[in-house]
Amino acid sequence: MKIVITNDDGIDAPGLKTLFDCVRPLGDIVTVAPQHPQSGIAHRVTTRDPIHFDQPGPDRFSIDGTPADCARVALKQFVPDADWLIAGINPGANLGSDVYNSGTVAAAREATILGCRAIAISQYIARDQQIDWAATGYHAQPVLQMLLGRDLASGHFWSVNLPHPHSMDSELTYKFCGLDTHPHQYAYDRQGDALIYKGTIHERPRDAGKDVAVCFDEAKIAVTCLAVGTGDLDASCDAL
C-alpha cells in the first residue's frame, strides 16, 4: 500500500512526524507537505504562479504551496499511484464548521476530488494544555489502521478528531458520528480601524451525538465521513 502524508503546518511540524511514525508500518510512505505553515487557509490552490519544491530526502517533498496544492502535486506528479492520502496530525480540532476553514481537511478533500481515498486527522487541544505527541500517535495509529481497512464510497473521505487530554495509559474508543453544524460563538473587538477576532472553541454550541460533543463531552475519538461538496455524514460511507 502506498500512502501520501501531508499537513497544513509545514513539513517540519511535529504532528507530521507523528503521523509518519503511525503509518510507516502500514505501507510505503511519501511525504508531500508545505514548506511553511498554512493553517486556516482552507481549499486555496495555486494555478497562475509556479509551484516551487525541494526534495530534502528520499520520498520527501517540500512544496511552496497550500495543503490542497500538496495533494494535487502529490497525486498528479509525484505519487499518481497512491492508495491513500492522509493529512495531519493537526494541532487543534477540525470539528463541525472547522472543516471549511481547515487546510488539513482541504488536502483530504482535494485528494478525494482526484479519486484518491483520504483521511484528515486532528488533535483537539484542551484549555491550557499541551499535546503529548507520543500519546497522540499511540491512540491515532489503531484508528488509522482500522479506517485504511474499511470500504469508502467514491466522493467521500474520513475526518478524525482525537479528544484531549490523554496519555498512553488512557483507553480511548472511537465513535462514528455526524458533523455538527452550529456556528462558533465569536465577535470582533474594534481597535481604531482594526477588528480583532475574539472567540473560543471550548464552549462552542453543540448537539449531543455529533462530532463536537463526541470529542469534547464524551472524550471519544470522533470519526466523521464527509462528502465532497456537502460536509454531511452519508450512509453510503458504510459507517453506521
Per the CATH scheme, the topology name is Stationary-phase Survival Protein Sure Homolog, Chain: A
Radius of gyration: 17 Å
Low-confidence stretches: none
The percentage helix is 10-25%
- Helices, by number, come to 5
Q: Using DSSP, what is the number of strands?
A: 11
Distance between the termini: 26 Å
Rounded mean pLDDT is 92
How many structurally independent domains? 1
Major sheet summary line: 9 strands, mixed
- CATH architecture classification name: 3-Layer(aba) Sandwich
**Strands ordered across the widest β-sheet:** 3-4-2-1-5-6-7-11-8
CATH class: Alpha Beta
Strand content: 25-35%
What's the helix-strand series? Answer: EHEEEHEHEHEEEEHE
Globular, elongated, flat, extended or rod-shaped: what is the shape?
globular
CATH superfamily: Survival protein SurE-like phosphatase/nucleotidase
